[in-house]
Specification:
alpha+beta, 2 domains, about 40% helix, about 20% strand, globular
Amino acid sequence: MKKLQAIAIRLDSGIKIQGEITHRSESDITVKIISPYEGLSGSLHIPYFSRPLNSFETDYGDITAEQLLTKLYDLGRYMDKNSNFLQLQIALHFYDGDWSSEDHQKRFFDSSFPFLLPLGTTMDVLNILRPQ
């Protein structure tokens, strides 16, 4: 595994997105967004039978990290733009205060996001949205 690696991209709109690769090996990569949003991370895995073709320790990993960072930005932007709606959904689905219920979580994500979220990222989202 390599050390933390800073990553930055600029969208066509001129927005600069900063993050870091927190884990990188031949088969796995994890990226965390730092700016303009924070608290979200995403990861991908290459199955053993595909490793002769791809490795995250090559340029393929650099491209994948940039794509992950872009998707994390899109998720952060969606959460920011829809924060009122998400708070209403939280009140509806977690009314009893049970954040650990997989059934409540599934219903919340299915009805609140127009796209699928990776399992690890869902926990990041709940940690950000959970009332303190």
